[in-house]
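Please review this one:
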Amino acid sequence: MSVLDTAMELYPYVFHPAVMVGAGALVLIHHECARQDADRSALARRLGAFLVAGVLSLIPTLVYALVTGQGLFEVTKGNVWQVDALVAGGIFFTAGVAWFLWHRYDWGSLVPGYMEALVAATVPYIALSPFWNFSGHVTMALMPTLYLTLVDRKFWPTLAIPVVMIPNRVYLEAHDWSESVVAFLVVSAVVVGVFWWQTGGTLRSEPDSTVS
């Protein structure tokens, strides 16, 4: 196996959808706390809240495994629409919990906005999944990095991750070019549209000042 083969094999694991969504949220939480000049205890509370919400994303898969009597490995393996549906269910669960907590404790607008964009980007992914192999890896690599870049341009280098993910999926024969490129274009439009709506049509976010 060549160096390129090894790198391409490892790439979707290093930048796995769960890793990308989680890392994007953690970076945004830290960024929002810094903008608010929040102390370490506030940052710790928010990080802990998100991590708990992330663990809760496993609930749909666990329930499905319990109902069907299948093992977790059997439930989560493969590239079929049922697996995509469970992933989407977990995303909706985590996004909903995080969105509620941030509004409940008035922790700021960026993380709820991220969750709204995440749910919106998941909709075409799960809607097309039973009929067309819309790339989940491209979707979940692009959504966090694009949202972060819209929030603050200093995050633009992270966009290299979804750009490389497009040929990666083709190279590994997990998707063809249309499935990867269309996912990139659709998710770009969705995330930009959601952010535009959130910021009143300016594509520019305003600093938060709430600290709790």
